[in-house]
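ARCHIVE CARD
Drawer: 12
Card no.: 0347
Subject: one protein chain, sequence and derived structure
Cross-reference: see card 0346
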Amino acid sequence: MLEFNVKPLPRHLNRILELLASYRNFIMPAFDLFKTAHKYGVFPNTKSYNILMRVFCLNGDLSIAYKLFNKMFERGVMPDVESYRILMQGLCRKSQVNRAVDLLEDMLNKEFVPDSLSYTTLLNSLCRKKKLREAYKLLCRMKVKRCNPDIVIYNTVILGFCREGRAMDAVKVLEDMPSNGVFA
């Protein structure tokens, strides 16, 4: 592109990062390109960071993902809901659900509005860890924060209660569904 006097754009960088990161052997070359892109007049945007954070989380390298997340703030690139969700998913995969919940708190303190997928990620992990009280509190908190739980979220919590033999709690959640416009 440069030899034809065409200035690359962040979307071009993102596409190349996506392609490289999709092959396990090319993760580090993708990271190297990301770190040197400014030499070519391309500055990574939120999506660029998210692409790399996701691939490092999927490969279990949360430390690099967190460094990238912190670099976003240093470089004046604003993370988005997806940035937080990527880290939450990475933490949950590593069974660090408490840190993921702390990240949700950080997200809310910075006035980001978590999407239902962010909540689903946390609720799944809380239920798998048998932290049903925390899962139920999070479900209730969703409603307070005006993020209406959907059928997937309700099913996650109901299944968590059922797996632990807490049928009455599951029924309580089931009965709450219609008040939020969700019907089984």
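Annotation on reverse: The first helix runs from residue 10 to 21. The radius of gyration is 20 Å.
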